[in-house]
Structures are given as C-alpha cells and as structure tokens.
Design a protein that fits this description.
single chain; globular; alpha/beta; three-stranded parallel beta sheet
Length: 283
C-alpha cells in the first residue's frame, strides 16, 4: 500500500475516536442470518427508527421474513458453487416479476476456509461461473460486485478500527471504485472495545465517499456468535444490544450480551484476494 493511502486513513482517526455513531445512515444494510430456533427475532429488524435500505442473505432469493419490508432492497449473492447453476435464472425471474434488483454480489470469501464461511472457489472456476451466471446481468443494468473489474468491490473486516481504515484506504487507492463493506466487526474483544469499534467504524464509513454501502456483522444472538458475544446485535435472549439498537437508529438499551459457556469462537476472513481479482480480470 502506498504511504499516501495509509496517511489518508490515519488522518481521519483523531476526529472520530470519541464520537458516537450517527443514529441513521442511508448506507446501512443488513447481513441477514435467520434463526430457525428463534424466528421471532426477525421482528427486531422492523424498527420504526431504522433507515436500513438493503439486505442480503448469502443467497439468490429474497427471505420470506422481509416480504412485508418494502423499504429493504434485496441484493442477491452467488455465494459459491452451491447455487451457481441457477443464480442467473433466479435473478432474472425476480426482475421479470417486477423486483428492484439493481445490484448483485459475487462469491463469499472464495479464498477463505469453509469452516469460517469461505466458499473456496479456484480462480479458474470462479471466472467460468462469473461469465455464465453473473456477467449477463450487466446487460440488464444490474451492477456487479466483486474484486477489481466490476462496478463495486465488497470487502470484509474482523479486527480493529485502524486496520479497517487502512484496509479500505488500500482498496480505494488500488482500484478507485465504490466499496461495500458487507461484513465487519472487531472479533472476540471486550464489550467496551466492541462498542468503541462500532462507533468509530460506522462514523468512518459514513464519512468516506467511496464507501456507498455497509452492513455490520451480525444479526444473531450473542450465544451463537462466531465473532464473539460482544459483537452480536442481539443478546442471548433475543433483545437488541446497544450496538444493535444504535445500528437501527435507536439509543442505548443496556442489554448486555453473553456468550455460550462452551462455545469456541472463530471469525470469518478479511475478504477477497486482490490476486484472485486480477486473474478474473485477465480471464
């Protein structure tokens, strides 16, 4: 990374370290992870204070839970090889039925480990699937999200705020494209550190022009969180944590998240490799 990109990211820090996140933001979306055990948790996301505008669910079809949420635009994702053969037809069917599909996401952490959510797709396979299942959507005016030679670049981050700012600065400096931060949290840290990270990062993302969309991770109970209990937006009882409420435009709840006694926490990788992106462009 060039020094000027690193310096640009650092110069933002002093002005936002002590600021609470803005109550609302048009950039915010939802990484929707349904709970089969507690489907009632979905009611949390229909908040009167929220201005969430979009969501994705790692799949090609919208979630029934949001059928009555017209303000939430669904963004299909071709997660990996599992839904690759029907992705194009699934999305085209929705467009034909009148759905507002203007963006799609391609491949969830193709370089990542499957135990932490990676789709593990070789570059050659990804390129073939991309040309067959995603690229044709560009002819219908849909904007495509994946590394480098696309309309926008999705990234993930699971560490401290300074690293997030530097990581995004590197992508902006390298590609000069719009950035979607589709997963982010400070994994496996204390409650105060997790809340500070959320406030710092959301302020930064709102102020960074190249970042057009972001979605905090995650929409689940703290006792099943794979990024640490304190990052969760819901407590072990399904109540909004402070972070969950802030993200939806509300105030502090005082609800303290607790983890499962014997749960081993692991976290997802930091996203998509530039080298893989370059190979896609060449192909």
């Amino acid at each position: 990374m060039e020094f000027r990109h690193f310096w640009t990211a650092l110069t933002v820090l002093p002005s936002i370290v002590y600021c609470q996140s803005p109550l609302t933001s048009t950039k915010r979306g939802l990484v929707y992870i349904p709970s089969e055990k507690y489907p009632q948790d979905d009611a949390n996301w229909d908040s009167p204070t929220s201005d969430l505008t979009w969501y994705y669910n790692y799949g090609s079809k919208p979630s029934p839970a949001f059928a009555n949420f017209p303000k939430l635009q669904f963004v299909p994702m071709l997660w990996g090889t599992g839904n690759s053969s029907t992705f194009l037809s699934d999305v085209q069917s929705q467009i034909k039925a009148g759905a507002n599909i203007t963006y799609v996401l391609g491949f969830n952490e193709p370089d990542g480990d499957p135990s932490t959510g990676g789709s593990v797709i070789p570059a050659e396979t990804a390129a073939q699937i991309w040309l067959q299942q995603i690229e044709p959507l560009a002819n219908q005016g849909v904007k495509l999200g994946a590394p480098a030679c696309t309309d926008f670049i999705p990234v993930h981050w699971y560490s401290n705020f300074q690293g997030l700012a530097s990581h995004i600065g590197e992508y902006v400096g390298t590609f000069n494209k719009s950035i979607w931060v589709t997963e982010f949290a400070d994994a496996n840290v204390g409650l105060q550190d997790s809340q500070t990270f959320y406030n710092q990062s959301s302020n930064y993302l709102d102020r960074t022009e190249n970042v057009t969309h972001y979605s905090y991770f995650g929409t689940f109970r703290s006792d099943v969180s794979n990024v640490g209990a304190n990052s969760a937006m819901l407590t072990q009882d399904g109540k909004l944590t402070d972070i969950g409420s802030w993200y939806l435009g509300g105030g502090e709840t005082g609800n303290v998240p607790k983890g499962a006694a014997n749960r081993k926490t692991t976290f997802l990788g930091s996203g998509l490799l530039v080298g893989l992106a370059t190979m896609w462009c060449v192909l």
